[in-house]
Design brief:
Blueprint (H helix, E strand, L loop, with lengths): L1 H20 L13 E4 L4 E6 L9 E6 L3 E6 L5 E6 L8 E7 L2 E6 L4 E6 L5 E5 L10 E7 L2 E7 L3 E6 L5 E6 L8 E6 L5 E7 L3 E7 L10 E4 L9 E3 L5 E6 L4 E6 L7 E4 L10 E5 L6 E7 L2 E7 L5 E8 L1 E9 L2 E11 L2 E8 L11 E4 L7 E10 L8 E9 L4 E5 L2 E6 L6 E8 L4 H4 L1 H4 L7 H28 L31 E7 L3 E6 L5 E6 L3 E2 L1 E3 L2 E3 L1 E6 L9 E8 L5 E6 L15 E2 L4 E10 L5 E7 L4 E4 L4 H6 L4 E7 L4 E9 L5 E10 L5 E7 L11 E3 L5 E4 L5 E10 L10 E10 L5 E8 L1 E10 L2 E8 L4 E12 L18 E9 L3 E6 L10 E6 L4 E5 L13 H6 L25 E8 L6 E7 L1 E7 L14 H31 L1
Antiparallel strand pairs: 1-66, 2-3, 3-4, 4-5, 6-7, 7-8, 8-9, 10-11, 11-12, 12-13, 14-15, 15-16, 16-17, 18-19, 19-20, 20-21, 22-23, 23-24, 24-25, 26-27, 27-28, 28-29, 30-31, 31-32, 32-33, 34-35, 35-36, 36-37, 38-42, 39-40, 41-42, 42-43, 43-44, 45-46, 46-47, 48-49, 49-50, 51-54, 52-53, 53-59, ...
Length: 984
């Protein structure tokens, strides 16, 4: 009898799950309210396509985001793209291209992959090393009219056949236990010279014969200044190895024929900066290098017989320079700044220093990209020209990671690759129209009389009527404002007036994003186009809990007309290490008047920052800053008076991951009108056993509509709604005492701490489980994902906190007089797919049911109803739970394809998910960011506040009109009948 009951329960559960998960789109709705943009990341390796049929039509790029991609030159679109793991396992050490061969080397040689250049399909894959912390290198050679690939890992030199990746020979290199990188090149006698780097100690020089026999004598040279990031190069003569030492500001040269000691060449002729490095060799000058001394200065230096360097040429105010061998000539191409909005490409013949006019270009270039840092020219002969004059296609990289393509004095396209490094997101409401803003003045002030208010009302309505008449005339005449657009325009499109005006349901917003390279963007949510952008080169992110972070806050919204809205980004100054504040208008992107265009240096290191709740007389919320000496600061300083006059006590806490202590403080106004900081509690989280990996509070914009939960017996289970509750995640390893155990066992813990009093509300530990732990903290519940190492699967846990069936205080919550310890309900569920990130939906009033937006590692974005993660789901349903509508418990959370809000628009390597309310209570806006960005709308409780698209207005209108007519007729008939009855 038990089996039929169990089958019925499973059947009912599946029906319930699918009934709440059916959120699929119709085919014509795809792409209507959502958009997706794909990116590559900061360029690491770059190659022009050299295949005969596609030469110069595509480029191959390897990026810092572990992406290999092919980009079409004519429009900048991605022809194909291969994304690898964001961890060390997917790191790209080198991308090699020659002819039709395209090879990527990953993670110190753990993976070597050969790709089909036209399609991006994998031809073969080889695993050579397990030392993922080292760096591998490689190059192509030709032997007996066959192509071979030389790969140098930390311990072995391999020769692979390019047709199938099979091993031709391998050579075990000396000192493989300490060397992290080998520089290898082929000599004229087909042998190989190899220089190994042992960071902080020495370099090792050895040779390998053409058939893979390693020389028995390896020579070691002390080099305490060298590390794996030091810029080094083997000279063109294959007899010298040169490195730049930033510690001594000198070039270190080692002769490879007579290995003795590094010879030093001090660089005293020109100032050096943090950008100083060796960029490459200079062909056509013998043994020469190209050295970058500053962002706008390049130096060509020639090696002398005494194994020192002399300056051959200094290129001042030059961002990038390349020497290209074309038509048996060495041509020097330089990229300089012509004016604030123009770059100049100049070409000179190296033999006679004459300028080549045909290759000169003036390239439009906006100031908000920073200076160019590297260019990649492609020279070709113009086939349509009888004299075969040279032409040039130019791709260059700017400081903000953007990729630009220019040809024939035009900038044809660019890719904003900084959007692959988004750290913080805000969605800002658009301002109302000018006529709607006038409604604020209609009621006037207390000093104005009735006639003045009436005059303002007439004036506002006349303005509306005039605007409506102009709109009707424009529509009748078919008149539209057209602006000439050329393909070389690099500025953003001037936004139409309606693009910057709030729509009826407040669905269109400005998505403000702050990125790791210091670029700030304003993106139109309904189109995905960039509305504005600002570049702050001195702005770098904080680094906490092994992650990068920029604080982005909205100090004043668009609701306070005529005051302009104000956003502020808080980061770190790259020059001083102090806090850096940048304030701007989030709608237009303009830096606010009186604020520095490159940000405001606070003059101190920032440990903690939080926005105040109270506004000043200009409706501006101040930002409280705590420096490294636990001193108090306010930005802007005018908000300090608000803090002094406020009767509310202000509390904050600091967490030190290095010591494992969480400390609570209180701000107290003293007698002198200043603010003192008082330490009030301290919590030790046992740094020796575990490490703090995350801190999660509740979102300030979240509204809680219901104070409790109605049970099946009509009683109410009241929620534990502590606004000061903070969730902490710690991870560690537990040493097993048993001799059977094979090492430490991972675990993680979740602490729920009151941020005002330091009271530990709840603590839970998951043994034999590990992170990364993703946490969503909302209302009275916490949802977190983790990896269960015991069962080798991903799981989702949920905690719900309740006060009980009696509420201690129905008006406000006080941490100093808290209710009794909450009732904590908990449950875990099996989740079939690993997770990138999670976030809960947010709506205007909090009435709509909650959904959890989950970015899956399979590429989907899942909208999962919170009801499926209810810890009260019963194993055996009772009449009370059925009356309540609780879904029966099943350990597995099924994935419904209809619940994937991005359908077939897969997104990978997701860094975060951001949600924002819309003007409609039923709708929540979702923004997913990472190597791709994706935007859409979700309706967790369906669109209960909007009529459906297929609503039959004609039929309903006809029925209503008929009912009105019938009501008048029946009213008349009833009156006649009543009159006749009265006469009887």
């Amino acid at each position: 009898m038990a089996k039929p009951i169990k089958a019925v329960l499973v059947f009912l559960c599946m029906i319930s799950i699918h009934s709440v998960n059916t959120f699929g789109l119709y085919e014509d709705q795809a792409g209507l309210f959502d958009w997706k943009q794909e990116y590559i990341g900061q360029v690491k390796d770059f190659h022009w396509d050299q295949t005969p049929s596609q030469s110069g039509k595509k480029v191959f790029i390897a990026s810092e985001k572990n992406v290999v991609a092919s980009v079409n030159v004519h429009d900048g679109s991605i022809a194909w793209r291969r994304i690898f793991e964001p961890s060390t396992r997917g790191r790209i050490d080198a991308l090699l291209h020659q002819g039709s061969n395209l090879v990527s080397i990953h993670a110190g040689g753990q993976f070597v992959r050969s790709w089909s250049a036209p399609s991006g399909s994998l031809l073969w894959e080889k695993s050579l090393s397990d030392d993922v912390d080292s760096r591998a290198s490689g190059f192509f050679i030709e032997k007996n009219k066959k192509d071979y690939l030389i790969i140098a890992t930390s311990g072995t030199l391999y020769c692979l056949k390019m047709n199938d990746g099979s091993e031709e020979w391998k050579a075990e290199m000396p000192h493989s236990d300490t060397i992290e990188r080998w520089y290898v090149t082929e000599r004229s006698d087909n042998s190989f010279i190899a220089i190994g780097i042992t960071p902080g100690q020495r370099v090792t020089v050895t040779s390998v014969s053409s058939d893979g026999v390693v020389s028995k004598t390896a020579k070691n040279v002390p080099a305490p200044w060298i590390d794996i990031q030091t810029s080094c190069i083997i000279m063109e003569d294959d007899k010298h190895f040169v490195c730049y030492s930033p510690q001594t500001h000198s070039l270190q040269t080692l002769g490879l024929d007579n290995v003795t000691v590094f010879k030093q060449t001090e660089l005293l002729e020109f100032p050096l900066t943090k950008e100083s490095k060796i960029e490459g060799l200079v062909p056509g000058l013998g043994s020469a290098i190209k050295f970058r001394s500053a962002s706008d200065r390049l130096v060509f230096m020639v090696l002398t017989p005494q194994e020192t360097f002399t300056v051959h040429k200094v290129l001042e105010k030059t961002y990038s320079a390349e020497i290209v061998n074309f038509a048996e000539k060495y041509i020097l191409l330089t990229l300089t700044q012509a004016d604030a909005e123009t770059l100049q490409l100049t070409a000179r013949d190296q033999s006679d220093n004459s300028e080549i006019i045909d290759l000169a270009h003036s390239i439009p270039f906006a100031h908000y990209h920073g200076p160019p840092v590297k260019m990649f020219p492609f020279l070709f002969s113009k086939k349509k020209d009888s004299s075969h004059r040279p032409g040039c296609k130019l791709i260059f990289i700017a400081q903000d990671f953007s990729i630009h393509f220019a040809q024939k004095n035009k900038s044809h396209w660019r890719r904003e690759e900084a959007l692959a490094y988004i750290l913080s997101v805000l969605m800002v409401d658009l301002p109302v129209s000018e006529n709607q803003a006038k409604f604020e003045d209609e009621f006037g002030t207390k000093e104005e009389d009735l006639l003045a208010m009436f005059y303002k009302r007439l004036k506002a309505q006349f303005s509306q009527l005039r605007g409506f008449a102009i709109t009707l005339v424009d529509r009748a005449l078919g008149h539209h404002h057209h602006h000439t657009k050329s393909i070389d325009a690099i500025e953003e499109e001037e936004p139409e007036e309606e693009d910057l005006i709030r729509d009826g349901f407040n669905l269109h917003k400005i998505i403000v994003v702050a990125t790791a390279p210091g670029k700030i963007y304003g993106i139109r949510s309904h189109t995905g186009k960039i509305a504005w952008q600002q570049f702050i080169p001195d702005l770098v992110p904080f680094s906490r809990f092994n992650t990068q972070k920029l604080l982005l806050v909205l100090q004043r919204s668009t609701a306070h007309f005529p005051h302009e809205p104000q956003c502020t980004v808080l980061g770190v100054s790259q020059k001083t290490g102090n806090g850096l504040l940048v304030s701007f208008n989030p709608v237009t992107g303009a830096i606010l008047p009186g604020h520095q265009s490159q940000g405001h240096d606070t003059g101190f290191k920032v440990l903690q920052a939080e926005m105040l709740v109270d506004m000043d007389s200009d409706f501006l919320k101040g930002i409280v800053l705590i420096d490294d000496k636990i001193k108090f600061h306010v930005y802007p300083p005018t908000s300090k008076s608000i803090l002094q006059e406020s009767r509310m006590q202000h509390f904050f806490h600091l967490i030190n991951p290095d010591t494992g202590f969480m400390t609570g403080y209180r701000l107290l106004p003293n007698k002198d009108g200043e603010i003192d900081i008082e330490e009030i509690w301290n919590l030790d989280l046992q740094k020796s056993q575990q490490t703090i990996t995350g801190v999660y509070g509740k979102r300030a914009i979240e509204h809680v509509h219901s104070q409790g939960r109605v049970l099946g017996d009509r009683s109410v289970l009241y929620k534990y709604l502590n606004p000061n509750l903070v969730a902490l995640v710690t991870e560690g390893e537990e040493q097993q005492q048993s001799s059977v155990s094979k090492g430490p066992t991972p675990f993680f813990s979740i602490y729920l701490v009151d941020g005002v009093t330091g009271h530990l509300v709840y603590h839970q530990t998951h043994k034999r489980s590990k992170g990364p732990v993703k946490v969503v903290h909302s209302e009275n519940w916490i949802v977190y994902s983790y990896f269960n190492e015991k069962h080798r699967r991903s799981e989702i846990g949920v905690l719900e906190l309740y006060e009980g069936k009696e509420q201690s205080n129905s008006t406000a919550f006080s941490s100093f007089y808290p209710p009794p310890p909450p009732l904590v309900l908990r449950q875990s569920y099996i989740f079939p797919v690993p997770i990138y990130a999670m976030e809960a939906t947010v709506t205007e009033k909090g009435i709509t049911s909650k959904n959890i937006i989950i970015a899956l590692k399979t590429g989907g974005v899942l909208s999962l109803p919170k009801a499926l993660l209810d810890p009260r789901r019963p194993v055996i349903p009772t009449p009370e739970t059925m009356e309540e509508g609780t879904i029966p418990y099943v350990p597995e959370i099924p994935l419904s394809t209809e619940a994937l809000v991005n359908y077939n628009r897969s997104v990978f390597n997701v860094d975060g998910v951001f949600t924002s309310p819309a003007g409609l209570e039923s709708t929540s806006l979702v923004f997913v960011y990472g190597i791709d960005i994706f935007y859409t709308r979700v309706t967790p409780s369906r669109m209960f506040d909007v009529l459906k698209e297929d609503f039959d207005y004609l039929f309903i209108g006809g029925v209503l009109a008929l009912m009105i007519i019938l009501s008048f007729i029946t009213q008349k008939l009833a009156a006649i009948k009543a009159l006749k009855r009265a006469w009887k």
